[in-house]
Amino acid sequence: MSAKAMLAVRDPACAERLSRILSSSGVETRSCSTVSEAIRALATDPLDIVFCQGRLPDGTFREVLRFADSHGGVPLVVCTDFYDKKGYLESMSLGAFDYIAYPFSSGDVGWIVSNALRKASHVPRREALRHHQPTAL
């Protein structure tokens, strides 16, 4: 799998785990820990997927998601410390590609990336969101 992912996470353990999982699948990762860094990265780097924690020191995933949608529709996965049904529903209704709770399994992360890349290569972003099937957590 040849792809580029951005990890917009404040928690070093979360960033390390995601980076290790993605790197083992051949996905190049770039890490940042704030909304402003994430937006700068999205503006300058061609990225295939973004993993973003729900809350960052200077904002939330919502700002990153709005920017990602308006700059090429990069799929954004919301990462949380625990599964929260309300958070899941809010994330998905705002247009997140998926929602995943820590600790992530390599299988779940790999499936999400593969699904995002497959849909991006076949279907326009808006259409992919309409047909998205959430992962079971």
Can you characterise this structure?
By secondary structure, the chain is of the alpha/beta class. The protein has one domain: Rossmann fold. It is built from 6 helices and 7 strands, in the order βαβαβββαβαβαα. The protein has helices at 12-24, 35-44, 61-70, 85-94, 106-122, 125-130; strands spanning 3-8, 27-32, 49-53, 55-56, 59-60, 76-80, 98-101. The strands form 2 sheets. A 5-stranded parallel β-sheet has the order 2-1-3-6-7, sandwiched between helices. A hairpin with a 2-residue loop joins strand 4 and strand 5 (59-60). Helix 2 (35-44) runs parallel beside helix 3 (61-70).
By CATH's scheme, which homologous superfamily applies? Response regulator
Strand content: 15-25%
Helix content: 40-55%
- Residue-averaged pLDDT: 87
Radius of gyration: 13 Å
Q: Specify the CATH architecture.
A: 3-Layer(aba) Sandwich
Distance, first to last CA: 24 Å
Uncertain ranges: 123-137
SSE topology string: EHEHEEEHEHEHH
Which word captures the global form?
globular
- Give me the number of helical elements: 6
Biggest sheet features: 5 strands, parallel
The structural class is alpha/beta
What is the total domain count? 1
- CATH class placement: Alpha Beta
Question: Any idea of the CATH topology?
Answer: Rossmann fold
